């Protein structure tokens, strides 16, 4: 991938004397422009793509502006203007439909490991909740039977053994099938997909990563991976699924099929739809696309992302995959207010979330590097199977790890009331002072009972196990999301911290700081709220998300009252995480995979320090710089075509920059000329000027190529700070930049040059530290 990069314009070891001197000539704008396709693992040229779209848009408007223009041109203008909105509507609908299928399948597979629905009509396709709709609770449900009961086990030991065996068997089977789908059918279906989608949106080309095969493979493999019980989630991969839908639908419209930059606007809207269906948070999805994944996000993309996210949420709501009128399993609603003294508890939760995020990112990247350098890289399928075996064996004995992580989060988020008093986590020791409630929905509070102590121990063990399993699991060759495992860890320690604060306030409610709010017979401090804040803080610590995360959590609860606690915890978690490193887990995996993603630049170098050739390399000269006075043989141009393009200078002596020629455009233009004229041969002289010399008798025809000359390439001075150069690359989306001194060409900077330079500086600073 590195050797044939289209960003490589100059050789770093030796520059030959091949040169072409060109006379300056204006580019002929009326001639048709060749359309070169981007090769795999290369970067697009945003300016070039947006310029192509402006030319296309102008042509359509001019064709429809005249009163005498046919009706077809006017309709074409209307269709072109509406095509963007049509595409995002279709993307939202497709994303909602795919998410509904994934949600329903995942829930059924997760429950199938523990039992089966054996109703009167043999409704085995129903999950546990659907099977027990007619019962008051799953405990009183007779239609749902565990595997031990199905096999007729009579003793507790035999019931436990049968359930344990089937849990491990189905978990390993699902994981093996999932890994086989990824290995043999859809290799790009592995991972969460967010780092790759983020890189693609920055302009990188990965052919097939958003293809139909990847979409189908991810939709089949994702429910199996989550249903196998692995410590991963489906929310992150749903962004990848939505992006695949967006790519497939956008390619149906020529406006987006032939323009990579315009297609990426649709992919930004698709990413918003993915988060919308993952968390039931349309507004949070739009902000996620803006804050986390998008590279180029104009205002119209914001509106279209909003429409796509809204449509996706509506379609998923119509499907109603969970049967509870909500879009996610862990939707919660709180009625109790929070009090000012709880800010300290929220800050503590945020600190722990930031520490966990820094620890997890460090350990996961270390393990992924170990996996790449060890023999595990040669046996990815067996690694998945062994991970499934270990996960199933370790998770089944603990009640809190046996259930799906989304169910565990839902349980931790909920408020303890009289209806939940029988559950261990809510089994308080009640007395007459704290039982003065009218409704069964009121929050209860009391002393710690043996059942609650047992639940605390189980939750602590579950948290430690999930931390280890998530570090190992995130990165194996299956679809794997990180949102749910991170939220699970945060929800557990958040719930436990909230329980501790609740008990402290209960025992010292006579203190003046508590008496006004939590006096005798009053209830306050909801541990479920702390679980939600803890989930947000860990997710912020791992991904470094802030604004979009707060909005997502708000949409999960539907209460503006808890915005401040969420903001305090997420901001604290980000500050703590940034103290150990400013990069989130997705940025770290982008670096791990060596994707060309440009981020912040914190060094004080100049453009001449990064360009090639360097000022100190006086013995080197440019390869492929066109500097022959009038022309060059086509045969010689083909020899230097492995480079992305060629700067055009006025003459050998002055090196004044005239323009830039893209090699793919050059090859396409030459092929077209050969098809149009039989006189064009490999010995023909190629001219980039409008005026050409008189052709002598017996000479091959002249190849006129002035229409492919870019006479306005982006250029900077050799003393321009690299921080400004990086911003030019990021904001304009260019692939290369000419470096000049008093108008004379000194060198070229490419995206790869900047990435290599940053890597060298980071390596040097790491050694000195």
The backbone outline, from C-alpha atoms, is elongated
Helix content: 40-55%
Please name the fourth-level CATH homologous superfamily of the largest domain. Clc chloride channel
Outline the biggest β-sheet. 3 strands, mixed
Query: Mean pLDDT, nearest integer?
Result: 82
What's the number of extended β-strand segments? 10
Major sheet strand order:
3-6-7
Per CATH, which architecture of the largest domain? Orthogonal Bundle
The CATH topology of the largest domain is given as Clc chloride channel
Strand content: 5-15%
| Low-confidence region ranges | 1-34
Class by helix and strand content?
Answer: mainly alpha
Would you spell out the secondary-structure blueprint of this structure?
Blueprint: H1 46-65, H2 71-112, E1 115-117, H3 128-131, E2 144-146, H4 147-150, H5 156-184, H6 194-201, H7 212-227, H8 235-250, H9 254-257, H10 260-279, H11 282-293, H12 299-319, H13 343-373, H14 380-395, H15 399-402, H16 405-413, H17 450-473, H18 483-507, H19 512-515, H20 527-543, H21 547-557, H22 563-580, H23 585-592, H24 607-610, E3 631-633, H25 634-639, E4 645-649, E5 657-662, H26 663-676, E6 685-687, E7 703-704, E8 715-717, H27 722-732, E9 736-741, E10 744-750, H28 751-768
Parallel strand pairs: 6-7, 8-9
Antiparallel strand pairs: 1-2, 3-6, 4-5, 9-10
């Amino acid at each position: 991938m590195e050797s044939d990069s289209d960003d490589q314009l100059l050789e770093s070891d030796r520059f030959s004397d091949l040169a072409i001197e060109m006379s300056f000539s204006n580019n002929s704008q009326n001639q048709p422009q060749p359309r070169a396709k981007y090769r795999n693992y290369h970067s697009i040229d945003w300016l070039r793509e947006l310029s192509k779209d402006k030319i296309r848009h102008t042509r359509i408007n001019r064709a429809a502006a005249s009163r005498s223009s046919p009706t077809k041109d006017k309709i074409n203008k209307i269709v072109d203007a509406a095509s963007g909105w049509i595409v995002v509507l279709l993307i939202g609908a497709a994303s909602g439909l795919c998410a509904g299928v994934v949600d329903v399948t995942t829930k059924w597979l997760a429950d199938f490991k523990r039992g089966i629905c054996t109703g009167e009509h043999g409704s085995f396709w129903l999950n546990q909740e659907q099977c027990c709709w007619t019962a008051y609770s799953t405990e009183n449900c007779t239609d749902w039977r565990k595997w031990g009961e199905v096999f007729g086990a009579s003793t507790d030991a035999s019931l436990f053994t049968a359930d344990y065996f089937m849990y491990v068997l189905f978990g390993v089977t699902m994981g093996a099938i999932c890994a086989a789908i990824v290995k043999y059918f859809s290799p790009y279906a592995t991972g969460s997909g967010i780092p790759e989608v983020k890189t693609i949106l920055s302009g990188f080309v990965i052919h097939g990563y958003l293809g139909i095969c990847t979409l189908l493979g991810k939709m089949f493999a994702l429910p199996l991976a989550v249903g196998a019980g692995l410590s991963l989630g489906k929310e992150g991969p749903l962004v990848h699924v939505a992006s695949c839908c967006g790519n497939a639908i956008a390619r149906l419209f020529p406006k987006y099929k032939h323009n990579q930059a315009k297609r990426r606007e649709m992919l930004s809207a698709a990413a918003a739809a993915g988060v919308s269906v993952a968390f039931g948070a349309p507004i949070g999805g739009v902000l996620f696309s803006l804050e986390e994944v998008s590279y180029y996000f104009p205002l119209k993309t914001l509106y279209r992302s909003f429409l796509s996210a809204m449509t996706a949420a509506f379609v998923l709501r119509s499907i109603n995959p969970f049967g509870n009128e909500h879009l996610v399993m862990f939707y919660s609603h709180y009625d109790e207010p929070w009090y000012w003294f709880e800010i300290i508890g929220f800050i503590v939760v945020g600190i722990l979330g930031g520490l966990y995020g820094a620890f997890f990112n460090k350990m996961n990247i270390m393990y992924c590097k170990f996996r790449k350098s060890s023999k595990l890289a040669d046996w990815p399928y067996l690694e998945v199977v062994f991970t499934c075996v270990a996960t199933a064996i370790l998770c089944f004995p603990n009640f809190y790890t046996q259930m799906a992580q989304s169910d565990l989060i839902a349980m931790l988020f909920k408020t303890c009331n009289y209806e939940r008093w029988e559950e261990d986590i809510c089994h308080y020791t009640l007395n007459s002072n704290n039982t003065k409630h009218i409704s069964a929905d009121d929050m209860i509070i009391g002393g710690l009972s043996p059942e609650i102590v047992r639940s605390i121990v189980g939750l602590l063990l579950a948290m430690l196990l999930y931390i280890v399993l998530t570090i190992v699991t995130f990165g194996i060759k299956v679809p794997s999301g990180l949102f749910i495992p991170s939220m699970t860890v945060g929800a557990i320690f958040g719930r436990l911290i909230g329980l501790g604060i609740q008990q402290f306030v209960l025992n010292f409610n006579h203190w003046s700081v508590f008496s006004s709010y939590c006096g005798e017979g009053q209830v306050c401090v909801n541990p479920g709220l702390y679980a939600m804040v803890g989930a947000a803080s860990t997710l912020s610590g791992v991904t470094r998300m802030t604004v979009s995360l707060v909005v997502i959590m708000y949409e999960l609860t539907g209460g503006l009252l808890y915005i401040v606690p969420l903001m305090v915890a997420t901001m604290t978690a980000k500050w703590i995480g940034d103290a150990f490193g400013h990069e989130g887990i997705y940025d770290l995996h982008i670096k791990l995979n060596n994707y060309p993603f440009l981020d912040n630049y914190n060094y004080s170098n100049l453009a001449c320090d990064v360009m090639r050739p360097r000022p100190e390399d006086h013995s080197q000269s440019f390869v492929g710089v066109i500097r022959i006075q009038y022309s060059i043989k086509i045969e010689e141009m083909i020899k230097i075509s492995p480079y992305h393009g060629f700067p055009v200078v006025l003459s050998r002596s002055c090196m004044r920059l005239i323009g830039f020629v893209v090699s793919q455009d050059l090859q396409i233009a030459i092929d077209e000329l050969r098809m149009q004229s039989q006189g064009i041969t490999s010995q023909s002289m190629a001219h980039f000027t409008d005026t050409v010399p008189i052709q002598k008798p017996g000479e091959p025809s002249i190849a006129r190529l002035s229409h492919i000359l870019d006479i306005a390439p982006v250029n900077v001075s050799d003393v321009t700070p690299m921080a400004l150069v990086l911003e030019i690359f990021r904001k304009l989306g260019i692939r290369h930049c000419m470096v000049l001194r008093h108008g004379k060409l000194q060198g070229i900077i490419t995206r790869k040059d900047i990435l290599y330079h940053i890597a060298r500086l980071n390596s040097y600073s790491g050694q000195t530290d």
